[in-house]
């Protein structure tokens, strides 16, 4: 069974071209959306000097200050982005792909008991609530709404800690007037949808068919969302914690049956851009059958664990009714400097019928 370190040392991302049906002329929707994907922040405490947190939060806040443009070239190679050379627009929000905390669900070292889960839960919030007070004298916090997803580190081990994390999802996104509204919220699975520009983004937490810990699977809700997106002419982007890479498909995370059920639900649709996930602490771009899969990196310094990527990275996305562009943004230092990564970028035309057989 491969460990995350073994996976990171051997994994090679694959890129392929794909075109999707046009969504031009969507009634009542905007034609463009810029947003950010993050994963695996693994907070354990409130630390105003946490270098990785300073690096990522500051970089996210800087990237749309009007000084930066979508790259025309990265390391001397054409980026292929439809928006290359244009100023990066203010993001609609941030989508978190899970493992917000390191042990928000408790830890097996103490049977999930004690205050560790609460400490880790409280460690995340000051940095990543745009409507909060921020951290330290500078009141540092992200400038954009964070749409949270939960991973295994947020949910494993303790029912009490787990319920705290689920309650946070409800508190931030559910009900009539939540701090961060969503377009559709499923009370059974706590999955939700965002309608951003030409996209319908579906947050599925750990994975779509998750049925443990007393929560019903999101699959029935997902199928309804897919049908509605097809009817309205929207493209679909799926977001969850687990992926289809060698580390992510271990049965301790989700089973082959789970994955088959998800792929079967997606199979009838040609308007699906892909599935974005975290969990493996590295960027990636590959296919599972015809499904494009985009893997987002973690926040953290892991030079001693096989992941030589500095302070981690986040993904910057721009979607229009004709194109989908994604670039991974590598955080360099605690001052918020960053660089665009040449690895695993995505540039898709979305105005033709899907014809990829990968």
UniProtKB/TrEMBL annotation:
Q: Which residues form the Calcineurin-like phosphoesterase domain?
A: 34-282
The cross-references to InterPro entries, in alphabetical order and at most eight, read:
Calcineurin-like_PHP (IPR004843), Metallo-depent_PP-like (IPR029052), STPP_CPPED1 (IPR051918), TAT_signal (IPR006311)
Top-rank lineage group of the source organism: Bacteria
Q: Give the range the annotation lists for the signal sequence.
A: none
Q: Name one GO molecular function term.
A: hydrolase activity
Q: What is this protein called?
A: Metallophosphoesterase
Species of provenance: Oceaniferula marina
Question: Upper taxonomic classification of the species?
Answer: Bacteria, Pseudomonadati, Verrucomicrobiota, Verrucomicrobiia, Verrucomicrobiales
